[in-house]
Amino acid sequence: MNRFTFTRVLQFNIEDRLGVYVPLIKGRDIVQLAKKLNANTVILFARDAWGRAYYRSKIAPLNTKLGKRDLIQEVIESAKKEGIKVIVMIGHTTNPILFSKHPEWAQRGLNGEVIVMNKDPPNLEKRIEWPLMCPNSPFIDIVSKEVEEVLKYDIDGILLDSFRYMPDIEGACFCNFCRERHEKDLGISMPTKADWNTLVYRKSFLWRYKINVEGLKRIKEKLKNMSSRVVLGYNSHPGGWRGRANRIIEMARNYIDVVFAECSETDYQPPGFIAEMVRLSLAMSGGKPVWASRNSFHTCLTTTCTSPIAIRQGLREAFIAGGWPLYLVFSSAYVQDPRITKAINVVYKEIEKLEDYVIDARPIRYVGILFSNKSRDWGGRDTPEIITDCIRGFYYALLARHLPLSYIADSDLDSGKLEDYRVLVLANAQSLSKQAVGHLVDYVKKGGGLLATYKTSIMDEYGTQLDDLQLGGLLGIRYKGEINTPWSYIKIRKEHKVVEGFSKGQLILWGDFDRNFVDRRVPKDIANHAYVEPKEEEGVIANVVLPLEEFGSEYENGRSPPVAGAETEAPAIVTNHLGEGRALYFSGQIGRIFWRTGLVDYLSMIYNAVLWLGGKPPISAKGPETFEMSAYELDDSILVHLLNYTYNQRILTGSPSTHEKFVFCSTHSIHPAREIIPIHDIELRVYGREVKNVRSLLRDDANYGIERRGEMTIINIPKLQEYEVILIE
Prior knowledge:
This protein is of the alpha/beta class and 729 residues long. Helix content is 28%, strand content 22%. The mean pLDDT is 95.
């Protein structure tokens, strides 16, 4: 693909069932909004989720509120005059109009009921408002015809909505088309229960992913045959649907030109979530361009606007992580709330100014964190958050310590694309291929650092449980089983860099209480340890300590941890050397516990471990946890983004459990960031390179002090307001 030009995006959605404001919205209005925002790309519906077209279609009825107007043509004519690109969105899996004609084309659950996208309380009568159509039905032919129709217009790209065809039994399609194709493809009937221990079920689970991929491949081939210049984007929704869609992107990366990382969960997630989803999407897609969305609204309050700070910083998050921001506006907010334009122009002007710098920038590699789709599926099974919590704990711990970090995919391990990283983190990466294991051994022998936890490598790539850890030799351990316990501790056995700041003999709590607290006191397996035997006692830093009782007897009764009991000989932290490299192993799920609790003990051990494995990073930052540093390599310089997350942090109220009856206040209050607090005295630390000059790319009045300390150069940033971009030459 040529240089990516769709870098500042406005997505304009007409979302309401009645199309109330459609008569008021002309194509030139949408383009003028884009121009006011300084966007260079507009995305709008060719066909909406209600089944109505906004162009003259032979397969979908025109939205009656348009009269005889062609909104797509109106937008194109106005956009071309302003040099703005136009991308149309097709393929919405919801299509009530089509469903009314062909109900047999809908996705249907195991009980035969239509699967819908609309969210309703489970105890209310179920509505079929947004039925999901099945990609195994002739619906996929309709999507293909949509491609043919919209390519008659002078568009620059097509954005295909996600098929929403998921593999989990409770959300999987069992329509007649699926049943027939499944039997044809696999030679067996569709499994009707989630029997993860059978290869038959796991093959069926994987088959459902392949249906998505084949649909994408078909659309891409249709597009390629009709136009070589029109790009294809796909809505991946990386933080939704249990993370399953990330595997679709990884498997279909050859059929997608742009990944749309829809980040509608942003307001429920920590600061930095949009940047995280960009890094995740880059890893899954093999580095394809990524659009990441910041909605104009807060949570689900679609007809009004959130705070300008939340929008500005959200768009910047997408950019600093290597993606391109997409600002999503609903037609109701466009008409009802004039504040939708506030705060966008300043960010899009910043990005326009910086585009030439970042277009060929390469992320500085130091830590690569494996986001293993196979491990999430085969190891996490019905509770995939067990795996993703492990991964995200490491991500946010290292983000807080301002180290260069990236996500990597299973495909990267399988192909051996590891040489750029100083440290690889395998957080409970249970499922690894033999190829990945071989590449990891070579990587460590050549000087790399490997950090692994819990049951890493206990399965092959197909989810088959093995007798031993495939990486046992590299980690210096032999797997003997699992220590099942509701709570545990680890006890520091000796001094080491990994436990710097802890004293010998110190006990560190291992575990957490369950947030539902309905049928169990603690989350599944959270305090468990892999029971391993070290090949060399010298490498053991800490041991596992069992609890004295099942639970504690303090204020929270069955929620609190018991005191420590007997110390075991089972190691909790093991180090090993292989060739020129190092390996470190935690027998428990330190990333998962940090993600849930945020306690500094786990953060310190994660940070210490990475530094011991990787040595001094090429660049890092020192300062409060509440900013993000993102660093890139240019030909003869380093580009550094600094984004301030020091907000009046969201008010996140909670209760000890979700079913508490006598709570003090609402337990799910979520506020947007309304103000940014400037932070001071940040240090950028560049190691092993001579620094000749430092300048801001956004502020002419910036002045940075430079101090040389041996092989390290310290660059002093006296104050960070909202956002700064620094070029180190």
